[in-house]
Predict the structure of histidine kinase.
Amino acid sequence: MTGRSETGGGPSARGEGDPLAAIGASPMAAAIRAHDWTDLGLGRREDWPAGVAALVALMLESRQPMFLLWGAEHRLVYNDAYVALLGAKHPAALGRPFLDVWREARDPLAALVERVFAGHPAYRDDIRLDLDRGEGLKEAHFAFSLSPIRDAAGAVGGLFCVCTETTATVLAQRRQRLAEERLRESEDNYRHAVELSPQIAWTTQGDGTVDQVSIRWRDLTGLAHTGTSWLDALHPEDRPRAREAWRRSLAEGRPLWLEMRARMRSGDYRWFLSRAYPRFGADGAILRWYGTTEDIHERKIGEEYLRSIIETVPDAMIVTDAEGTVRSFSQAAERCFGYRAEEVIGANVRLLLPERHRAVHAAALGRHRPESEGGKGGEAERVIRGRRKDGTTFPMSLSIGEIRTGTERVFASFIRDLTEKRQAEKRVEEMQAELLHMSRFTALGEMASALAHELNQPLTAISNYLGACRRLVERAPDGRGAEPEDLLARAIADAAGQAKRAGEIIRALRAFAGRSEGRRQREALPKLLDEASALALVGTRDADIALRIEIDPAVRVVIADRVQIQQVVVNLMRNAIEAMQGRPHRELRIVARPAAGGTHVEILVEDTGPGLPPEIAAKLFQPFHTTKPNGMGVGLSICRGIVEGHGGRIAAEANEAGGTTFRFTVPCPPAEGRTHAA
C-alpha cells in the first residue's frame, strides 16, 4: 500500500521522521506508535500512505469518536474518543479485524462495511446494535457517516467513520414517548371514567365561572352549562338557595355541599348532590374549583318514602345521640308528648320524663347499654312513664335500637302510649267480671230450675197423700175421740198447705230462672260480637286461630241483654277453640244474618274441629252432661236457657268442613225485620 506523495498515496520520504510526531502524547497516539503494524496490512508506520497518516492524525486530534478500517481484513484504528464506545474491548481492539471486534453485531455491520468498501458512502442517523462491552449484551444506538478511502490507483483501500453513540438520547426519547403515551392513555382512561362514572365532573375558574363540564351533563339536560347558566337548569324553588350557597363558598373558600333538583331533557326534575373543593395558590388565592355532581334521585325518593312511613307509623320515634340529645322527633312523637319537633330537637331526652323518674329511666331512653353489658343491637321492650308538655304523665312502652354510622352511635327509641291499652284492659276485666257474675247467676238459676224440676213431683205427691189422709179422717164415725181427730185433721191440713206452698215457691224460682227478662234493650250487633270475640280469644295467642266475622248489613241491631248474649257467644267460641286443638286447619267463623220470618237475627259459630258424635249431639244441651274431664255440664244448658229466655232457639249440626256449627236466634227491632223482608 504505497502511493505517490503528490496524491497523498506514496510513502513519506525517508528522513522525514514520524508522521504522528506532531500529534502529541495522547493515550491513543502513544498506543498507535507502540503498536507493531508490520504484518497488519499497513506496514511500518513510516511507510503509511500520506492520506492514511493524515486521517489518523485528524482522528487523534478530534474529540469526536472516529475510526479507520484498512486493508482486506478491515484492521481497526481509532482515536481516544472511540475508546468509550469500545468499553472492555479496548485496548485489545486496536489493529484487530473490525468484524472480529464486534462479532456480536457482525450481521448488520458486515453489510454496511461491504457496501462502503464497494465504493458507496453510507449515513445512518440511528442504528440499533446489541453489543457486549463487558456488561453483557445491551441495546445501543449510533449515528454515523461512513466514507470509502481510495489509494493512489483509485481503488478503495479503507473506510473512515465518524460516529456518535446516541443510546442515552434514544432511550430517553423512548421513555419520553412511553410516558407521553401513558399520559395520553391515562387521560383517555380518565376521560372515559369520568364520562362513565355516575358522578358528573366539572371545574370552574377561581371566580366560580364554569369552564369544563362532563358530556354526561349535556346528555342529561341538553345544556352545556358553562359560565353561570347552570343555575337555569335548577328547579325555581332551589335556585335562590343554590345561588346563595355557591356565593358563600366562593367568598369564604369553603367546600360546597348542595342538594338540588335539575331539569332533564324530558322536562322532569331529578335530585342531584353537588360537591366542590377549591385549589389555592401560594398567595392563598383560589385558583380553581373542582366539583362533582351525583344523581341521588332514587336515594332522595327512598328517604322521602322512609320519612313518610315513619310519620305514618302510630308509634312515636325519637332519635338521640350517645349523650341523650334529641336529633329527630316524629309527628307521632309530637302527638304523643304535645311538643313540636323544633321544641325538642337539640334538648336532652330527660325533658320527656317525669321529674321523679328521670334519674332511673334517662339512660334507658337516651342511652344504650354498653356492649359489655349485652347492649349491642337492640333492647327488650320495657314499660315506663312519660311526661307530656302539659305536665301530665302516662304509661308508655319503650324499645331502643342502636344505629352505628362509622364511629358514631345513635339510638332510635320507639314509644307507644299505653293509656288506651290500659283503659281497654280495665274494660275487659270489668266485662269478664260481669260475665263471671252473670255466669254464676245463670248457673245458679239453671241448677235451681233443675232442682225445682226434680223436687216438684215428690212435693206434689206429699200434698196428695196428706189430702187423702185428711179426707179419710173426715169420713170417720162420730164419737171416736173427736178432739184428737180434729187435731190430726188440722195438722194434716197444715202439712198439706206447707207442702203446697213449698211447691209454689220452687215453681216460682224455676220460672224466675227460666224466663227472666234481664236488661233487654237495643244493642249494636257488631260491637257486641267484637267485644265477645276479644274476650273469647284472651289467652289463645298460641292456638293459632284464624277468626272471621261476617255481619249482614241488614242486621245491625238486636234486642237483647248484652251481657247474656255475649256469654253465649263466648261459651260457644271457647268450646270451638278447644275442639280445634291439634287440628291442621283451625278457622273460626262468626256469621250474623237475618233469620226466616224477619223478627230474629241468626248467629252462627262455625269451627273446623272433629265434629260431634251422634250420641253426644243428642244430649248436648242437657244439664250436667259434659264430654270434658273437668266440665260441669252446665255451659250449653245455660246457653239454651239464655237463648230461649230471649224467645229464640239454639241448635247444633255438622258443617261441610267436618266441624260443628252452632246456630241461635236473637230478636231484632221491627225495622230490621222489614229490611230483611224487603
